Amino acid sequence: GEDVEQSLFLSVREGDSSVINCTYTDSSSTYLYWYKQEPGAGLQLLTYIFSNMDMKQDQRLTVLLNKKDKHLSLRIADTQTGDSAIYFCAESDSGSARQLTFGSGTQLTVLP
Amino acid sequence: NAGVTQTPKFQVLKTGQSMTLQCAQDMNHEYMSWYRQDPGMGLRLIHYSVGAGITDQGEVPNGYNVSRSTTEDFPLRLLSAAPSQTSVYFCASSSQETGGDADTQYFGPGTRLTVL
C-alpha cells in the first residue's frame, strides 16, 4: 500500500527558514498536501501541489516536489512562534482523490 | 457557516460500552470521512461516504459502524469499546467536484476518546 514518511521533530530559531521533508511511495499520487495542526485543534490545509508541478509558492510557504525521487518539502520563510505546530504531509491518487494517506507528522518547534 | 462540527470534544468510556461520535457539516459537501489519529502514526481512514445512503470502509474499519441518512450528518458508532480504540477522532468533509481547492478536505476539531 501507499506509505508517506516524515521526520518526527524539527526545531528552528525565530526568523530562520524551516524545511519539512516528506517522502512517499505511491507513483500514482495526483495531489500532495501539507496540513497544519495546532495543539488541540483539527487539521488546517496549508497548501497543495499537483503532481505535474515542481514548485508552488504561497506567501511564506514554498512547496518543492521531486517526482522522480518521490520527495516533497515545505519551506516556511521567516519562521514565527505562531508557526509552531505539527505539519502533516498527505497524498491522494487519481482513483480516490479524497482518500488521503497521511504521514506521521513533523512537530515544528520555533525557539525565540 | 460553522464548517465541520464534532461532539463531544472529550469522552471516557469503559471497555464494552457503546457510543456514537457525532459529525455534522453545513457546506453541502457530499464526501465525508472519519479518521483516527494515534501518536506517531498520522491519521488513518476508518470509514467514508460519497453521499447520503452510501458508505464504505477505509484502512481501519474494524470495531466501527457508520451510516449516512442525510448529507449533513455522518455519525461514527463504537458498538463495544476497547482500549485499542483510545484515540483522537477527526471527521472531514469535501465536495465531490475535482481539481485544486475543490478537493480540499475540511476537518472538524476532533473528539478525544479514552477507553478504560
Describe what you observe in this structure:
The complex is a heterodimer of chains A (112) and B (116). Chain A is mostly beta strands and 112 residues long. Chain A is built from no helices and eleven strands. In chain A, the strands form two sheets. In chain A, strands 2, 4, 5, 9, 10 and 11 form a six-stranded mixed beta sheet that branches. A five-stranded antiparallel beta sheet of chain A has the order 1-3-8-7-6, with no helix packed on it. The termini of chain A are far apart. With 116 residues, chain B is mostly beta strands. In chain B, strands 2, 4, 5, 6, 9, 10 and 11 form a seven-stranded mixed beta sheet that branches. In chain B, strands 1-3-8-7 form a four-stranded antiparallel beta sheet, with no helix packed on it. At the A-B interface, strand 5 and strand 9 of A face strand 4, strand 5, strand 9 and strand 10 of B.
Number of helices of chain A: 0
- Please state the structural category of chain B: mainly beta
Number of helices of chain B: 0
Oligomeric nature of the chains: heterodimer
- Low-pLDDT runs of 5+ residues of chain A are none
Q: Strand share of the residues of chain A?
A: over 45%
* Overall 3D shape of chain A: globular
Note the main sheet of chain A.
Answer: 6 strands, mixed
Structural class category of chain A: mainly beta
Number of strands of chain A: 11
The biggest sheet of chain B, with number of strands, parallel, antiparallel or mixed sense and barrel status, is: 7 strands, mixed
- Biggest chain pair interface: A-B, 23 and 25 residues
* DSSP strand tally of chain B: 11
Give the percentage of residues in beta strands of chain B. over 45%
What are the key terms here?
heterodimer; A: 112 residues; mainly beta; six-stranded mixed beta sheet; five-stranded antiparallel beta sheet; globular; B: mainly beta; 11 strands
